Amino acid sequence: MYNAGVKSLVLFCTSLSLLSAQEIRLGIVGTDTSHVIAFTRLLNDPTSPDYVPGAKVVAAFKGGSRDISSSWDRVDGYAEELKTKWKVDLMPDIGALCRRVDAVLLESNDGRVHLEQAKQIIAAGKPLFIDKPMASTLDDAREIARLAKAAGVPWFSSSSLRWSPIVTSLKFDDMVGALTWGPGPTEKTQYLDLSWYGIHAVEMLYALMGIGCEEVSRTTTDGADVVVGRWKDGRVGMVRTGRPRSDYGAVVFRAGEVAQSRPKTPHSYRQLLVEVVKFFQTGEPPFPNEETLELFAFMDAAQRSKEAGGAPVKLR
User: Is 0.85 topped by the overall pTM?
Assistant: First the structure.
């Protein structure tokens, strides 16, 4: 058992060394989001001013969810653009895709299908980036993490907003609280309604606050959600999502000072992809997986608070 374990570790480290020394072949699972085109452009086009070297999208599996129009109506169009414009090979299933690539971008728009798709990617031993949301429920997110850990497969999941100037310009060691906001449209098929789009604002909050939330309460109206979290050390973090749309922004509270993000602060996918490529080269996620799992526990508690009429709910 010991020798087998050492051999497995040596093989894994060797594969990481090989990946870091050559251009990584990437596969996309799920062509029903605009992210697949934006990401492929930045990774595959050396003439782009935002080009990210080190990895190239070479294969894709279409996927798609028939009961979500924003998924099913777009999956074929994006797949065709990948094939014709970017010369990406379309594969008949996830198994065939995994045999063609070194690592996987799990991009499916519908978080409900992520667990089943991730199972196949993990079984193939491929490192994976899971685009937001990691899953549609806390239990599914935890199961993906459990399976990946058991198989020794590295993963991480994130919104690109984590690396936006909104967040990076407001990180202070003496922060006592934060408020983030963003769009909050929902999708009836998703149990955690914040996971559909509100997750961007939640991700921003966690990028600023870190882990340690104990209790959440939520107020919901037709036009907005306000979620208040209490951290173990006494800090308070808040998320506001607006409907039908909202800009992104944040306020950080410090001792004797309040700092706010600039209006209309721009952001791009480039820094996220820089982190993704670095992750595939090293096997080390840019922040702890535990933070992503607590972020889902935060949204799970917010959902239960909503169902309880706004009563405070402990994270589970």
Answer: yes
